[in-house]
Amino acid sequence: MKFVCDREKLLAAFQTAATVAPSRSPKSILQNVKLVVTQEQATLLATDMETGIRIDVPGIEVEALGSAVLPVVRFGSILRESVDTQLRVEADPQGLRVRGDRSEFNLPGQNPDEFPEVAAFEDEAYHEVSARLLKELIRRTLFATDTESSRYALGGVLLEFVENQIIAVGTDGRRLAKMEGPCVSVGQVTHVDGTTIVPSRSMQLIERAFTDLDATIRIAVHANDVLLKSPQVTIYSRLVEGRFPKWRDVFPQRREAVRIQMAVGPVHAALRQAAIVANEDSRGIDFAFVDGSLVLSASTAEVGQSRVEMPVGYSGPPLTVSLDHRFVSDFLKALDPEKTFTFDVESTEAAALFTTDDGYGYVVMPLARDR
Amino acid sequence: MNRDRAAPEIRTLPASVVNKIAAGEVIERPASVVKELLENAVDAGATHIDVTVEQGGSALVRVSDNGCGIRADQLPLAVASHATSKISQADDLFQVRSLGFRGEALASMAEVSQLLVRSRVADEPAGAELEVIGGRAGTVRPCGCPVGTTLEVRQLFFNTPVRRKFLRTTQTENGHTVEAFTRIALACPGIHMTLRHNDRVLYDLPAVDRWVERIRTLFGAELGESLIWVESRVEEVHLTGYVAEPGVSRGSNRMQYLLLNGRHIRDRSLQHALSEAYRGLLLTGRFPVAFLRLEMPPELVDVNVHPAKLEVRFADGRRLYSQLLGTLRNKFLTTDLTARAQLPPADDTELNHGLDRRQAESHRQATIRWARGSAGEEAASQPARLPPFPAVPEFRPFGADRPVPDGPRASTGPLAPDGMGELPSARADAPHAWPPPVAAGLQVHNRYLVTETEEGLVVIDQHALHERILYEQLRQRVLAGTLESQRLLVPEPVSLTPTEIAAALEARDVLARLGLDVEPFGGDTLLVSSYPAMLANFNPVEVLRQIVEQLLGSDKPLDRRDLVDELLHMIACKAAVKAGDRLSREEVQTLLEQRQYYQDAHHCPHGRPTALVFTSAELDKRFKRI
Ligand SMILES: Nc1ncnc2c1ncn2[C@@H]1O[C@H](COP(=O)(O)OP(=O)(O)O)[C@@H](O)[C@H]1O
Ligand SMILES: [Mg+2]
């Protein structure tokens, strides 16, 4: 195998692939990225057996077809440290040679045939979603997952495809984030049994690897795994096995509750101020709605008290709900500060519900303490 | 004062009242009936005993044996008070070899229930029966029955409604009943015993030769595997039995069975000896498991000090204490249990024990006050203010800010030690002094932290230290009522046995104070709907189980203080870093900054040591410099 590459383009793709390769593994060949050069294209492959990635690399001038196993750390460093625009790479059973204008590296080679198969996207029936929406779905739900939970399979984001809608749900049992948006089915999409829970790690990879916002992503769901494909990148992931809470039951459907429109930026600023006196063991911020204003307050023994007031369009009897400030902050961080959201409260004990007009909903269970 | 009031007349009480009073002492609950009837069957030389219980024993307790039986003409005497076949003169009291001897049990229970005794002796062709209802005996009537005795006690406390009201749920009462059965079954491996509750067979224990087999059928093979045989004889006192390896322990001392001449007893001093023997081998708040038999001539012990004969008085309690402690220590030293660190010399620890004990006692008192407050009892007599506590600095291994001065507990004066000043006495309270920076620490084997203090070298158990810190913080928060409870989106179902569920529900308000809300969900399921917010990765199932173990372990109805304390320990233990956890340098330093937990006291008040100190003098000596 022999080719000349555009160093920066290869570096970008290599770094993405390298995040999939495990840094430690009993199967040591997995600690590498495989490169396959065919007549049509050059593709980087990496897998940790749970997830897999295939990335097409642009800017390659092929001189001889073939494949090579590229060690993550050393080859990555060469790509990063080199200052050349182009590098010449050559691999054969003797080893791997990389040559720049005034530099040359020799690395031991490994047999590319020993590298495990990385699944390719071959489905005829799939869902289509815009990369922009998919990334937004992930950014707004992934933070609410809980990799530690033993009760449910909460270590991933639940995906549901219902009537040209894609729904993503993440929860850790204390709060739940849900986002939905349009999608299109192509071909005869059969319904798979069981839940589709994509591991958090894979979701992170998906969010990072699909860089072209305008691309269309194909998603093929199987019983035990899922495949996603953009024109350049294919990602394979095993699914998380286990139960997922019935999230629709958890999502409050209320008419009685008080709904207050608020702007993201100012609420976030007030929350950050109120949370100055919160700490690891005292996380609660009281959200008190009184006529015309929202008062955020916190009090922690040995630390202090805070009280921040902001005007809101609320009129009615005073209503207080205590929430973990980090949970609220996670929600606000996922939104554009210019946007508005609706805060929906019913009582001190009932779940607080945050919604936006673009299909995003977030439920937070309140904290209780006897003061 | 009330001189003009007429002096009241003194009367002898009618026999039925006397018996009712006596009944209160001997018969406290259905389990007491089971215990007394079983003891009688054992005394009668039975080799097979069947126990049937309905509704936890409040509806029915029936004990059938194949023992010697009671002659028809003796039946009225058997149920009369102070009538016994087991002793005849006062001196016999110090020679008691049978389980019963007071002649009170049958009379007492006959007074407060509907009792039926049916019995036949071997040389009679037929048996006889006698019914006593609320202390009123019927007539002895002949009946057909096998050799042996069947005693039925129905509707216990039917004529003393107040007592009946004090009975707890069927599950709780049955728990006590099972325990009473277990104690006798443990003492009598040679008797085939069965226990049925509401038609369900709970135990069917065949007669066995080896004691350990009975232990195994009662408590499971797993526990059986962990038992270590111990034995010793000091003059006429013979101690034999099994103790469990330190890896197997319990959250209460419920699994410490002590049999004295075949009689189950409780003895604080011997329990203490047991804990002493395990000192340093068990985690804080854990109790050893033991099955021990003491055999001694009856004259060396007075069993007539407690109506239920549960407590006894030894002629030489102190010698017994050291026999037990010595036997176990010797055994542990010759058994490879776990690498035991050598504790600092005794004279050195003595002082700190005192210090810690005082501290522990003040914590205990505060917790009691809190626990009382939570029940709403004695609210008037309690000050509304919270009890004062020494400030414990925050522990935030991952927080950005470092703790600043550690206040009144600052351990040194403002002058940096240079090896020339008066060291120990400089450790006076210096409330506004900033402590000198903590010497750099080193984590060893992902398990211990090593650092330097003024005195010398300290080796710290990272888990024990962190646990200690968390415990203090939790306790403070609970006392201040600022422990946050996070509600769950979906309540978590936990399945437990009916006994466990009853216990958990009885303790519901205490659990709620700790941020753990449980609700009944029907059948064998409880729902956990909220949990303490500071324990994000808390497994409610496991923790509830341990709590329940603790609840069932307490002898008294519900000792809030112990429960709360146990829960705090448990939570702290769960949340603390474990042996084997790799800590970052910052985490090590943050832990070491909590120096009050390893500097002034090198051990927890009731458990294994937190730290070992090697003074520079000691090091010098070892290196033969002095
Ligand atoms: N199961 C039994 N088999 C034979 N005799 C019994 C049985 N239960 C009771 N007795 C007789 O009734 C007497 C009174 O019993 P109890 O009131 O328990 O007093 P104690 O056991 O202290 O003697 C006993 O001393 C014994 O003679
Ligand atoms: Mg008796």
Note down, in words, how this protein is organized:
The complex is a heterodimer of chains A (371) and B (626). Chain A is α+β, with helices and mostly antiparallel strands and 371 residues long. Chain A folds into three domains: 2-114, Roll (DNA Polymerase III, Chain A, domain 2); 126-248, DNA Polymerase III, subunit A, domain 2 (DNA Polymerase III, Chain A, domain 2, Roll); 252-364, DNA Polymerase III, subunit A, domain 2 (DNA Polymerase III, Chain A, domain 2, Roll). Helices cover 18% and strands 42% of the residues of chain A. In chain A, the strands form four sheets. In chain A, strands 6-2-3-4-18-17-16-10-14 form a nine-stranded antiparallel sheet. An eight-stranded antiparallel sheet of chain A has the order 15-11-12-13-26-25-24-19. Chain A has a five-stranded antiparallel sheet with strand order 5-1-7-8-9. In chain A, a hairpin with a 3-residue loop joins strand 12 (165-171) and strand 13 (175-182). In chain A, helix 1 runs antiparallel to helix 2 (72-81), helix 3 (131-141) packs antiparallel against helix 4 and helix 6 packs antiparallel against helix 7 (325-333). The N and C termini of chain A lie far apart (72 Å). Chain B has 626 residues and is α+β, with helices and mostly antiparallel strands. Chain B contains 18 helices and 25 strands. Among the domains of chain B are: 15-207, Histidine kinase-like ATPase, C-terminal domain (Heat Shock Protein 90, 2-Layer Sandwich); 212-334, 2-Layer Sandwich (Ribosomal Protein S5, domain 2). Strand 27 (367-368) of chain A pairs antiparallel with strand 22 of chain B. Adenosine-5'-diphosphate is lined by residues 36, 40-41, 44, 65, 67-70, 78, 84-86, 100-107, 149 of chain B.
